[in-house]
Amino acid sequence: MMETKILSGSTSIGGNFIRIEDGDQTIIFDQGIRLDLMSRYYSRRRKRSSRKKIRGIDFG
Fold first, then answer.
1. In the chain, which ranges are E strands?
2. How far apart are CA 50 and CA 60, in angstroms?
3. Is 59 contained in some domain?
């Protein structure tokens, strides 16, 4: 029997963390950052990065 559990983000914007289980198989969806938790650690206003800045990120 398939079971879906919302582990985080059900009452906030962003940071959805969902686990779907079916027998011995498990899939986890971790979708983003919870903005309510992020604001605890970052007090300044966050602004969207430009496309040029994002394209210039070196991922290794």
1. 2-8, 16-22, 25-31
2. 20
3. no
For the chain, 60 residues long, give each residue's pLDDT as a single digit of tens: 899 999 887 877 778 889 999 999 999 998 877 776 676 666 666 666 677 776 776 765
Q: How far apart are CA 45 and CA 50, in angstroms?
A: 16
User: How far apart are alpha carbons 26 and 34 in whole angstroms?
Assistant: 23
Length of the chain: 60
Per the structure, the complete domain to which residue 20 belongs is given by 2-42
**Domains identified in the chain, total number:** 1
pTM of the full predicted structure? 0.53
Residue 56 lies in a domain: no
